[in-house]
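Input record (one chain):
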Amino acid sequence: MAVIDADAHVIETERTWEFLDEAERSFGPVPIANTAGSDKSYWLIDGKARGRGGNVGKMFPKESRELLDVSARLRHMDELGTDIQVLYPSILTEYTRRPEVEAAFCKSYNRWLADVWGQGQGRLRWACILPLMNMDSALSELRSARDHGACAVFIRSFEGERQVIDPYFFPLYEEAQKLDVPICIHASIGNAGLENLLTQGRNQGSFLKFKLTVVGACHQLLTEGVPSQFPELRWGFVETSAQWVPYVLHDLNRRNSRHGYDVGPNLLRDNRMYVACQTDDDLPYVVKYAGEDNLVAGTDYGHDDHATEMMALSSLRERTDLEPRVIDKILDANPRALYGL
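The corresponding structure, as predicted from the sequence alone:
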């Protein structure tokens, strides 16, 4: 049995943007340091400063978390008992509002991860990012990424002015279905105005803007019946824990019962939806709603926030409140099914 980390990260560095074509160099992010005595640093992307390195897990070796040395990452995975990691970006908010800048940004990032995959002995798979302001470019980029190790599409809870239920995205869902690549909505938000509105309070609105928007996206997809329109497409909801699953399914049942029908006990399974759980979730309770075939787990490798747990996968193995076969599914069979590994 393999152990698959369904949510690991890469930390973008200057090398990420070395894959830009010469004509696109001016579109690349530029690193800038804070000269006011702070240790904060930023990316200058399309004329706007965006935080850099605010969520870097120093417990993870620098050469591994930044993929400066792919062999070092693989050795650390061996130490952790991890066979495969699925890599997500660390820039989880809006990049730009100009399609040409977005296209260059995504292409260089994807080429970087393709290069990593080529060195990774099949153990470092990744979620591609797409220039969704231009759907033709997005579909072309998806096909290229799939051919170079991408096993998922990373999409944010909001993409500009659009929700994930917008028919604008249906060509993407159709192509992803054809290519056998899932759509994975990771904790994120791709609308700068909404991000600014929700960034309030001591925790910068992190729960509201990054977590609940993903939960809402799942609810919207099910309410609108989008998964039924793409009957072979898989969906992932990542880094939001799984405690919300019973609430969403209960809410959908109550809403639908008013119209005379029940959503049924296997809603996630029937819609090919997978949710990344955390080790402190009440998993016996969650499994009753999510089913044992639709939960995966990740470490949030490379980051340093409340979702990060370097030893999460081995901790799951030690639980006594779940049958070993269910834990085996969460660590291997389920992420293998989600990502088509």
